[in-house]
Amino acid sequence: MKNRGIGVHGSSRRPAVRPAIACIVAGALSLLGPWWSGIASAESAGCPDAIRVGLVFPMTGREGRPGTYQVEGIRLAMDLINARGGVNVKECGKRLPFKEILYDDQSDQGRSVQLVERTMSSDNVVAVLGAYATVLGQAQSVMADRYQVPWITPGAGTSTIFTQGRKWIFGVLAPVELLGYTTMKFLGSLVDQGKFEKGLKIAIAVENTDHGKEYVAGVNRWIKEHPGAFKVVYNESFQLGGADFSGILQRIKTANADIFLSDAHLQDYIAMQRQYTQMGLRHRMVSYGARGPEEPARKALGPAADYIFAGIWWHKDLPYPQVKAFVQEYAKKYHREPDSWYAATAYDGVRALAAAIESAGSLNRTSIRNALRKVRLTDSLLPGKVLDFEENGQVMAPFVIVQNKPGGKVDFVYPEDSRTGEAVTRIPR
């Protein structure tokens, strides 16, 4: 009963016709020689017309602004790669363009998981780029190993994402713990230079997420290694997305610290610093972790954002030719310069994926995953100019410290070889 073809139910002449046709076709194809062999090989390898890549980012909602910036960086990288003919895929015998499959998770964790699962299981993508923010990144990362699809995040830097033994995840951001540690290295350098006296008191307030906890861990690690340099007199966390920070700020005021360190997302930074100013708080130096020079914050806060310092993953004024070229291309496409680091890390995430596909010579997901582990971009936009992934899948690029100055100016203040201006260690009244 398995043989239900024409030979059973059709005319008795048809079986004789088909071999004849097959011989004719075979003879014709043999005349086409190597050209046909190449096409047949590409088709048998399942080569599509484009390299489909899933994008799952917050385009709306609380994280919509930075998520949109990250998508802009991805699109710019894809456009530039496609304009050069696409990515060379050896097994296909040709270059293929990137094609995005974009979903807006609306800054919602549950929706983010569903959309990543959808694109990994149904959209025939070779990889997924996604997740601005720790909460969304933690949710998305689980799906990569489940569906065995490479996942690259340009916007989630919490190391807890990368300590679960997962084999299919990659992160373009250096760990948040290193951000806290680098912040303290910078403050310690001010002690070494005689700009700070030893024993200054620090108040800490961070978001109640793994992001915030890792920032504090980095701060505490440096302080433990340098006893007597600084003293933490206040350490409290707050809920992500809060509207009223007056209670925690009043307790910070009572702590009578010299330096105020926070770790907050963009909207919380704006809200907290506005209330900080309204309550008349003043410290010698203030930081909100990786937030500070963003254009929306400076517009919203005005002079209240002056002299805030931040540890950041990237800045448009890094003195690298590739950074200058990126900024020019970004401005040409979007009619404005990139705001903070969001677009740059996403741009490099696409470049790392392209390099992995070319190295693998294949659109096979496992081959791409294995090639990503060996990728080394020596013309990266990141500080240090090198992007490669550690064994756990996360990069370990250095941070730079910047400080806002009046008139919209931003100075590099650490490390020494990147400095464009002196750190202001006592905020003017």
Structure description:
This protein has about 425 residues and is α/β, with parallel strands linked by helices. It has three domains: about 5-45; about 50-175 and about 320-400, 3-Layer(aba) Sandwich (Rossmann fold); about 175-310 and about 400-420, Response regulator (Rossmann fold, 3-Layer(aba) Sandwich). About 45% of the residues lie in helices and about 15% in strands. The chain contains 13 helices and 16 strands. The strands form five sheets. Strands 4-1-5-6-7 form a five-stranded parallel beta sheet, with helices on both faces. Strand 5 (about 125-130), helix 5 (about 135-145) and strand 6 form a beta-alpha-beta unit. Helix 3 crosses helix 12 and helix 4 packs parallel to helix 5. The longest helix has about 30 residues, at about 15-45. It is elongated and about 65 Å long. About 45% of the residues are buried. Residues about 1-45 have low confidence and may be disordered.
